[in-house]
Amino acid sequence: MSARTTARSDTGGRAKSALLTGALLLPISVWYLLLLVVPLVMVAIFSFGRRAPNGGYVADFTLDNYARALGTIDPFLTSLSMAIGGTIGTLLVGLPLAYFMATRAGRWKGLLLLLLIIPFWTSFLIRTYSWLILLGQGGLAGFLADLTGGEFRILGTWSAVMVGLVYGYLPLMVFPIYVTLERMDRTLIEASKDLGAGRWASFRQVTLPIALPGLVTGSLLVFIPMMGEYVIPQILGYGRVFLMGNALYLDFVEFRNWPAGSAKAVMLIVIMLVAITFYLWFLNRGRRTREVSML
Amino acid sequence: MNDIDRMLRTTPINRRSALGVLGLTGASAALAACAGGTSPAPSTEASAPASVAASTEPSAAASFEAESELLIYNWTDYISDKNLAEFKTRYGTDVTQDFFASNEEFITKVQAGGSGYDLGCPTAEYVQALIEAGIVQKLDHSRIPNLQYINPTFLNNAWDPNADYMIPKDYGTTGILYRTKLVPEPVTSWKDLYDLTIGKYSGKVVFVNSMGDVFPMPLKMLGYSVNDNDPAHLEEARKIFLDLAPHILALDSDTYDDKMTSGEALLVLGWTGPITDLKANPDTADTVYLVPTEGTIFWMDVWMMFADAPHPNASYAWLNFIHEPAIQAEETIANYYATANDEAKKLVPAEILNDPAVFPPDDVIASLEGSLDHSGVQQRADIWAEFASKIGG
Question: What is the pTM of this model?
């Protein structure tokens, strides 16, 4: 009898907890459904339609938009090289910074974290516009021009875009790496040194593998939005590089051709999905072979 | 894309005053209101100027009771504060405005209907689509007696021949801005701009980032109408575009005045909007605006009433009020854009009336063309995308 009551109360508890889980998951599920899944499905549907005579979308089934989208391979490649360059740049600045904060900053750690977050309290757009002043004729470019006695331009070039990208996305790279390094057991480094590894070998064989999940997360967090980046190249690069974002902007805003823009967007999403799946698969495989080789 | 769109909306993307930029004015206005402890509604009756307040209200509009609220979807900083206060004084109606930064944004927001606004203020060529979609209300001219003051040229335009759906707000031209001190060569035509761009001033020329405003340059250079969609003519225009592309510094509608100030841009294919500020700045006082001799387009911003306008009486009261000559003259003084209202023109100070950047001379007006919306012409779209992708080489 007592067993039966226990069992009953157990199922009751499980049902209650399932109900609670469901209730807790409801808001995020609705959010994802309405703001992610539904719009994506709409974009996919639009991509097969036609532009309405006055702009917008008319239902149809045509592959014309995809045929045209294939012609936008150049902006796609430009976006790709910009995103790869930006990710590498962010990584080169972000990794040492995260390493320093996690292992060497001591009591300054909190302050450094705060300093990294503070810019986020200001509008992204204002921060980007302020780079116009810093890099412009009244700023660095003017200073370098005075120094060299020639004309010097930074704004409207790739360098300006890279500076803007690294600046804008840095925290997204630093925090995931910082979190992985923060939890690292320091005695592992001591052990590796005891076993005769030098600084570089310790870093490569101990620190780096531990930081790898953070590096991967950070790189993806930075790389994916950079593929669709439009504002920074437009403001700091003067729009002189024609990116996927520019192509999408023209379709949706200037030409009001939603189906054409949707097809390009779908193509971008599919390529990114495939590429990132492959990237993650490749990393996992690499890690497994390494573990095997270590054994 | 939504985030970007939202960000872009807060940028000074328009030919109007650059003050709305970055929401700074909005924020500071809100701060000022808090600090002063006053209501943010600009209902101070004393601020209405005597000349404005002296006008009498036509009796035709009096038979309808204006509602206490009027919702306008407008460009930033585009109505005189004095006139808003005067309207509140006369009708007891509070005007609430939402702002858009581009016609595309306007269309996107209202084209589905149910926007909830009474009046909209887009550029004329964009209203046709809305008329066809049944979004715009046909106007009862008997309730807007002040239409009598408007020059017939602007009422009988290509976009809406009988002014059934829209009445002029103000108009202006797309032309050339340049720094006379830094560009000693004479600039009078599109051809001059073309020669200087591919020649001496390569890399120092900015075009506004708007297909409809840039296409007139090659088309007019070739002697065609701005509304010409003959494939062979567009192909000729494409060649001119491709000649120009490597020599253009940027396509930029938002900050070309900054680029002129810093000396990065010496010639701009653009709008008259920033000219007042540029002239007021001692560093750029040498900036002039001109309408090229081959002719160009004029744009006209219009008042239109939404089919489902919740406050129709207040809307009619506003449409009639705003074209009262003294009120309309105050709009011109505040906004620095040409009015189509002949009676109001008589009340505008001579310095504005004689400024070719505001009121084109009569012989120039004859060369102006209204531009229809060609964004759906695939060949134009392809040419523009190709041009945009080759800027700077």
Answer: 0.75
